[in-house]
Design goal:
Helices cover 29% and strands 16% of the residues. The protein starts with a helix and ends in an 11-residue tail after the last strand. It is an alpha/beta fold. Strand 12 (257-260), helix 9 and strand 13 form a beta-alpha-beta unit.
């Protein structure tokens, strides 16, 4: 899913029409016109002849939307291979997100949807999960998933053994994160294979060496949160378990409570299932769950029609904005951009706002960023920027490629593939929907 390409035609209230099935996506080149991969119901709905799937599997590297969301369009007979934690995250997304044609990853409803089939059960996709060390056999291919460090847990690269040699796919990764040793494992394992091809991400191929790290986020934010004697607001991606761990650790150490949303609770409870992540449950004694205003605005149970909220209303650690206002300096409240209107209830006058996300890099993000700044200025809050990217920087990326030393490099997931041409290795400028043979 290309956010940039989608953003050329659509925005928040202008979206592809579910009523047109796959039509809008094909017309605007949001998805490639590949044969033998798409759902039969979507093809029929668009007046196209359905075909049996020609693909035998999809390897999903991690659960970020740009990698996972357009599984929504794939034929039900194509199994999805992903890490166990990746599947947990997809389940958390499904639990709290409204069903839309672009997020039917775990399961989907056949289109067109009529009143007569509205209540039909969804078609559940076949997911096969793995961990590092497992081996996947698909026809005559053997695939070894290997963990990498990224800004979401359960991220993997793939070592693909073929009759012509080994192909490496990096997925999204970084060499400066809190678990950089996982990326080092992947690089070592890939180097040993002497691959004929490396398919690599290049999100930050144009960036220089930086000193960013999760430890620096921790140090900077802890210092500022200690000094702040008013309400603290933090914004970071719910899927980023490292960032959650950072602020959870800070909150415990300085005697504050971390306040999360019901949406965040969906993720946290699934992270808690993976004992390797060592994350607390959403009912942890150091965590509150913020109850939003709905319908009547009086917090009565009848106001909450979303099941992911209703099922958690009995939790012992539910709190309201009014409760927080009584002792604001005792709380660190996690709120993302789409819930900034809750600041009206929290009234964080002269408090602190920590923006722990990347700075805007396109026009649409800059507009949203300006709105966020307006909220911060309205409440005269102290603004702090502190972030550690989920993507490998340019020098580390080039160093990784030199170590792996593939015969051919195929840069994807990048807006500046031409920068790979400075490598001595043969670099192929990838064209969408074109088949490459080795």
């Amino acid at each position: 899913m290309s956010f940039g390409r989608r953003g050329k035609y659509f925005e928040e209230f202008l979206n592809p029409r579910a009523a047109n099935g796959i039509g809008d996506f094909l017309e605007l080149n949001l998805i490639p016109n590949l044969k033998g991969i798409y759902r039969e119901d979507l093809l029929k709905h668009h007046g196209l002849k359905p075909k049996k799937p020609e693909a035998q599997a999809v390897l999903l590297s991690h659960a970020h939307a740009d990698h996972a969301n357009y599984i929504s369009f794939l034929h039900e007979d194509i199994p999805i291979y992903c890490g166990k934690t990746c599947k947990y995250i997809l389940e958390a997304v499904k639990e709290q997100a409204k069903r839309e044609i672009e997020n039917e990853v775990i399961d989907y409803k056949k289109r067109p949807v009529f009143k007569s089939n509205y209540r039909d059960p969804p078609i559940i996709r076949d997911f096969i999960t793995f961990r590092t060390g497992d081996k996947i056999k698909i026809d005559n291919l053997e695939i070894e998933p290997c963990h990498v460090d990224h800004s979401v847990p359960g991220a993997y690269g793939f070592i693909i053994h073929t009759s012509e040699g080994t192909i490496i796919y990096t997925g999204d990764l970084r060499a400066h994160g809190i678990h950089k040793e996982m990326t080092e494992d992947f690089i070592i394992n890939s180097t040993m294979e002497k691959p004929i091809a490396l398919i690599t991400e290049g999100t930050r191929v144009d960036s220089g060496k930086t000193l960013e790290s999760e430890d620096k986020v921790y140090d900077k934010c802890k210092k500022n949160l200690i000094e702040n004697n008013r309400l603290s607001i933090v914004d970071f991606n719910f899927k980023d378990v490292d960032r959650f761990t950072t602020f959870y650790k800070i909150a415990k150490e300085i005697g504050k409570k971390l306040v999360i949303s019901f949406k965040h609770a969906c993720y946290l409870e699934r992270y808690h299932r993976d004992k390797k992540l060592k994350t607390p449950d959403s009912k942890d004694e150091n965590i509150f769950i913020l109850k939003p205003k709905r319908l009547s605005g009086t917090y009565i149970d009848e106001d909450y029609i979303d099941y992911y909220i209703k099922k958690r209303l009995s939790y012992p650690n539910i709190i309201t904005a009014e409760d927080i206002r009584k002792k604001p300096k005792n709380c660190i409240v996690i709120i993302n951009f789409w819930y900034l209107n809750m600041l009206v209830d929290l009234k964080p006058k002269k408090g602190m706002y920590i923006h722990s996300l990347s700075e805007p890099f396109n026009e649409e993000m800059k507009i949203s960023y300006e709105r966020m700044v307006n909220w911060i200025m309205h409440y005269d809050m102290n603004f702090i920027q502190s972030h550690c990217s989920g993507h490998i920087n340019g020098p580390d990326l080039m160093d990784m490629i030199k170590k792996i030393n593939p015969k051919n490099v195929y840069p994807i997931h990048t807006e500046k593939p031409q920068l790979f041409n400075k490598l001595k290795t043969n670099t192929v400028m990838v064209k969408e929907a074109k088949e490459y043979k080795l």
